[in-house]
Amino acid sequence: MSDPRIAIVGATGAVGGVTLDILRERAFPVGGLRLTASARSVGRTLTFAGEEIAVEETAPAVFDDCDLAFISATDAVSRDMALAAKERGCVVVDDSGVWRMEPDVPLVIPEVNAADVDAHRGILAIPNCAATPIVLALDALRRASPIRRVIAATYQSVSGAGAAAVAELDEQSRALLAGGEARPERRPQIAFNLLPRIGSFRDNGYTSEETKVLHETRKILHEPNLPLSATCVRVPVPVCHSAAVNIEFERPVSPDEARSLLAAHPGVAVVDDPESDAYPMPADCAGRDDVFVGRVREDSALPNGLALWIVADNLRKGAATNAVQVAEEIVRRSAWLRAGV
What we know:
- By secondary structure, the protein is α/β, with parallel strands linked by helices.
- The chain is built from 9 helices and 13 strands.
- A hairpin with a 2-residue loop joins strand 3 and strand 4.
- Helix 4 (about 130-140) runs parallel beside helix 6 (about 210-220).
- The radius of gyration is 20 Å and the shape is globular.
């Protein structure tokens, strides 16, 4: 069986660039590679496996000779290109919010629900970058006791809003430190500030990002009625999303039992020695693929509760690494041969 031919849509974006790195790092079998982006990036070259590859404009014809496509672009591009790829027999791993809640599209974190890959019908989705680390922790801990309720507050880095947002954080920070003004262009000031809004507000007062965390967590864990409330906040950090999570269980779960379950779970690393100032922090977790958990303790407000702190690189495990892991499952199961089912 030949190695799958790959397309990366959005190759010049923040996640697209990391996807190239992950493919190389994990020695993913690449039988051919095409890189696409918007018209303004056409002509740029990116390096993969020592070869300079020219970026093409994103168009359906790209998928004619591809077996697998990673799409990390706008919702509009994902909607159109995923369908175009599927029609041409190319399996899609999509990073947008367009397909995640479609009933016939598997939403996959391989360490949690790899078997769902087999149900694909040409398109698979990866979760929101804030949901992924929370789900991994919940999956580990529900082995101790069923979960009654989850309360999460996320602290999400600006790279979750794209490379332009990172540049804006840098520009605003430099300006303010020099005694000038932040002059925000695309959103409220982010430098030296917190934005308690990610996405648009819904009628119930929650944002679209908070709603994604709720529904995607339920879908991945196969727990459609799991009570969960999230507050998602943008913070002036370049890379890594963090979360303070409170979990209520049906029976008491001790911090020691929780640490053992977390440490044993694939993709999770425990960093939890507060007396030595050892706990997950974005500065330490950036560029790494594990989901890091620390500050594990009894919830002082709940008899059967735990409180914990989670940090993960949103460009890697929150996006590119998870997408490549899904593709590895597709190849392992030869599921890329079933794009037209």
